[in-house]
Specification:
Length: about 425
């Protein structure tokens, strides 16, 4: 995709070179036109007053054919435009330098920095547009020079000298998922800035998401530093996702500019969806729509009810220490614990996991006895983790607990599409 930009500072107006020419009829030519009109009128009058011609005169009365020649377009000098314009300041280093030709073509173009180093660029096949293909640097002066030839065959040259912006702060970006990962059908694309972003539209435009097959989706801001992109429905298994977070040099407002750009190529794996029912104490696991297994489970006991809603698998672990202190309950308190389990998969930042729990096997399938996690046998937890990826979906229902908060982990699917599409805290 490509982005258009509107320069509001007069200093950003494009530099142009232009020209023109015209012509006028001579008095002699005008007289010829008038005479032709008089003769034409006379012919019409004679025709109107004459009776039908004799058969021998028929040929002489046939209208004579006329021919007209389309006028040749006037030859014009080339009009060259460079954006940003001459003497522009505060130019975004991430925006391309563009040279355009009207009434002609570009024959030569170059952009160099203040040390004379050229910036890479490319000419369009039709020869009327040239653009830089690599970003500029912060706080540097550049000279752009273009030469073109008009339809009149004459050359023209134009030059623009401009300076790029010096940021007050540079915003770095981290992403989830990362390049090369295979994810589940519920995986949102999460972007985390280390500096507050004021111009959120500029940030969204810098982050390009391409999918195959095409997938409807939108951005949603959880706060000034965190934005997610999510499809309207779960991803289709096998979808290829390409993320190009080309943030470098883009103005995010209040003196903040994007720093290093990021890219990722991600693949969506099988559609693994687990539905956990607190009423039946069972987890039903489907793979690509077909039931693969039903697992007896135990969820949060009274006072520790598991929040209900749609979770997304965040991370997978083995030999993991479950510590109540991570969500505010000291391990040495009466309600606290610190236990190492063989298999654990994180479902939220507030400490909800599904994990192996050999101590509650007798309760699994019958009653809820956990501190909020989903208990199952070690074998079942290992099996589920073996077929799973981060981004797989776990739906909790009939738990008796509160709703999962959208900001708790990757609770993106807790937000209805209409609300999500509105963009969040923009």
């Amino acid at each position: 995709m490509s982005w258009s930009r509107v320069w509001t500072d007069p200093a950003h107006y494009a530099v142009t070179t232009t020209g023109g020419w015209g012509f006028d009829m001579t008095g002699s030519r005008r007289r010829h036109v008038v005479l032709a009109g008089v003769l034409g009128l006379a012919v019409l009058l004679v025709t109107a007053c004459t009776s039908e011609p004799a058969a021998g005169d028929a040929a002489s009365t046939k209208p004579k054919s006329t021919s007209s020649t389309k006028p040749t377009p006037p030859k014009k000098p080339v009009k060259l435009t460079i954006t940003p314009g001459d003497k522009a300041g505060g130019v975004e280093p991430g925006a391309p330098v563009t040279i355009a030709a009207g009434d002609g073509t570009i024959t030569q173009a170059a952009v160099v920095n203040d040390t004379g180093k050229p910036v890479a660029g490319a000419l369009s096949p039709d020869g009327v547009t040239w653009q830089t293909t690599e970003p500029l640097g912060f706080g540097k002066t550049y000279t752009a020079t273009a030469t073109g030839k008009g339809t009149d065959g004459k050359p023209a040259t134009v030059t623009s000298v401009f300076t790029t912006a010096t940021p007050r702060l540079k915003a770095d970006l981290s992403m989830n998922p990362l390049d090369g990962q295979v994810v589940g059908v519920g995986q949102p694309l999460a972007f985390y800035f280390d500096v507050a972003v004021v111009n959120k539209n500029a940030a969204q435009q810098a982050i390009q998401v391409h999918t195959e097959p095409p997938t409807e989706g939108a951005f949603y801001w959880f706060n000034d530093k965190e934005v997610h992109w999510r499809p309207r429905e779960y991803w289709k298994a096998g979808t290829k996702i390409t993320v190009n977070a080309a943030i470098f040099g883009h103005d995010f407002g209040n003196g903040v500019y994007g720093n290093d750009s990021r890219t990722a190529n991600v693949t969506v794996g099988d559609a693994v969806v687990a539905t956990v029912d607190g009423g039946t104490h069972q987890m039903t696991v489907t793979v690509n729509g077909a039931v693969a297994r039903t697992i007896p489970i135990s969820m949060g006991k009274p006072g520790h009810e598991t929040p209900y809603g749609t979770y997304v698998v965040m991370s997978e672990h083995t030999n993991y220490t479950m510590d109540s202190g991570t969500y505010g309950v000291p391990a040495d308190s009466p309600a606290g614990y610190r236990t190492t389990v063989a298999v654990a998969t994180r479902m939220s930042n507030s400490g909800i996991f599904y994990h192996s729990a050999p101590w509650s096997v007798g309760d699994q399938g019958h009653r809820n006895v956990s501190h909020g996690c989903i208990n199952m046998t070690t074998e079942a937890a290992a099996w589920l983790q073996s077929i799973s990826n981060k981004g797989d979906v776990i739906v909790v229902q009939n738990s008796g607990g509160p709703a999962l908060e959208p900001w708790d982990g990757l609770g993106d699917w807790q937000i209805p599409w209409d609300q999500w599409f509105a963009g969040g805290k923009k």
